[in-house]
Design a protein that fits this description.
By secondary structure, the chain is of the alpha/beta class. It has a domain at 99-387: Metal-dependent hydrolases (TIM Barrel), CATH 3.20.20. Helix content is 26%, strand content 20%. The chain has 13 helices and 17 strands. The strands form 3 sheets. Strands 1, 2, 3, 4, 5, 15, 16 and 17 form an 8-stranded mixed sheet that branches. Helix 9 packs antiparallel against helix 10.
Length: 461
């Protein structure tokens, strides 16, 4: 993932203190050209999300937003407020970057089916219900960016989707309204892979771990050969092989333009992923890694980040029996970049910050735990230049809380996405999703018990 190189792209240590509008500062250009209404939150307790770029916590801080971007961050009284700026007294409330979930299943989507164990060309984008109530629940937890994943029942279950929770006002009309796109307008996402027991089954699915690795290796070799033929043909369409969407997706993974998000639990399965990643030059993020603490040094040596889940009552999966709350601490101390994820519903998005609190309780460094909710996740999606910290030039994605986000007593009061308020606890319609109750858990009538299945295949069974 080349994390060291990417860190150099973040703001320097002096930037947080000097970011008054109009100051001559090394990163001043990142906020130039930003238009729209300017708003400043004064006297807030700011969690910047990036302790390497400046203070991790600013006790009396000012956050200045213009349009969809952050333009200034610093201590109150040291940040120049442009004339005409709307000012809001935060009254000591906490403001932190919008939370990033690297592994979510919100939206009722599904990708690959039972016809084959490897289906990389299938897109979760084509099956997400953008009006699913889960998106509002996520906002109630302070989340602003999600990596929506297919399930883990396949060796390769399809392409994931990176999205922003743009639910201000009337909210999105279609899935296109929440997509995160690159400069060419292409929607961004990764590739979901899995090993272990989830992807094992009756033929054509593999029955053993060895056969699982064989099938994956076989398809990546086919993709490599396919790409070689495409390159050799150059512009001669007659010499090109027939287009293969599955192999194209695997080629993108080998070229690093599509990050592989890999479900894995046991230590031996983790090592298998590292082996395949090295063999095919995959840019991989390990997900779950229940036994990551057993092979932390090997993961660190491979320079592969881990997106982990924190459960206070694990069960139901034998290969996760050695899951431990110390996982985040052990991995981060070994030098592994760690993020948390919800796997929503496994962890309710409204309680996402609890993951960091439990990890800190087990000895993880607090600044690293906060980053694991924000910037580390952004890095694992390749979006760290746009989201993940309260930094000038980045998207104005942030959450306002009543207190310390690692306290069980704290509430998310508001969630802002690209400078627009997308959740407000004081609004009854939003509070419903924060508190729960009839209408908060499903968009369909209560009697339709098999909602996800009905949405995907047209009828409950």
């Amino acid at each position: 993932m080349e994390m060291d190189r990417r860190r150099l792209l973040q703001l320097g240590a002096s930037s947080i203190a000097c970011m008054a509008v109009g100051d001559v500062c090394s990163h001043r250009s990142r906020a130039e050209g930003v238009s729209g209404e300017t708003t400043a939150w004064l006297d807030a307790k700011l969690l910047t999300g990036d302790s390497k770029a400046g203070p991790a916590v600013i006790d009396r801080g000012t956050l200045v937003v213009r349009g969809s971007k952050i333009i200034a961050v610093g201590r109150t009284g040291e940040v120049a407020i442009p004339e005409g700026t709307k000012t809001i007294d935060a009254g000591g409330k906490w403001i932190m970057p919008g939370l990033v979930c690297t592994h979510s299943h919100i939206g009722g989507g599904a990708a690959a089916d039972g016809s084959a164990p490897i289906q990389p060309g299938v897109r979760i984008l084509d099956s997400i219900n953008v009006r699913d109530s889960g998106f509002k629940r996520a906002l109630a937890g302070g989340l602003t960016t999600l990596n929506i994943m297919p399930g883990s029942g396949h060796l390769v279950s399809g392409q994931t989707l990176y999205c922003k929770l743009r639910y201000a006002g009337k909210g999105p009309t279609t899935i296109d309204d929440i997509l995160i796109r690159d400069e060419q307008g292409k929607s961004l996402g990764g590739l979901k892979m899995a090993n272990g027991t989830n992807s094992q089954g009756d033929s054509p699915f593999p029955g053993t771990r060895g056969k699982s690795a064989f099938l994956v290796r076989e398809q990546y070799i086919k993709a490599r050969e396919y790409h070689a033929k495409v390159v050799a043909a150059k512009e001669d369409l007659e010499k090109r092989p027939p287009r293969d969407l599955h192999l194209e997706s695997l080629v993108e993974a080998m070229q690093g333009s599509r990050i592989v998000h890999h479900h894995t639990h046991r230590h031996d399965d983790i090592i298998t992923v590292l082996r395949l990643a090295q063999e095919f030059n995959l840019r991989v993020v390990l997900h779950h890694v229940s036994e990551g603490w057993k092979v932390a040094d090997e993961i660190a040596a491979a320079k592969v980040p881990c997106s982990i889940i924190v459960l206070d009552s694990p069960g139901g999966k034998l290969e996760a029996r050695d899951m431990a709350l110390k996982n985040g601490r052990v991995l981060s101390k070994a030098g592994v970049t760690v993020a948390f994820h919800t796997d929503d519903w496994i962890t309710d998005s409204r309680l996402f910050a609890r993951s960091a609190a439990l990890a800190v309780r087990a000895g993880m460094d607090r600044d690293q735990a906060v980053s694991a909710l924000t910037l580390a996740g952004a890095e694992m999606l390749g979006l760290e230049s746009r989201i993940g910290s309260l930094s000038p030039g980045k998207d104005a994605d942030f959450a306002i809380l009543s207190g310390d986000p690692l306290s069980v007593y704290s509430r998310v009061l508001q969630t802002w996405v690209e400078g627009e308020k997308a959740f407000d606890l004081s609004e009854p319609s939003d509070a419903l999703f924060a508190e729960g109750g009839q209408g908060a858990g499903s968009d369909l009538d209560p009697f339709l018990c098999c909602y996800a299945q009905a949405w995907q295949v047209g009828g409950a069974k």
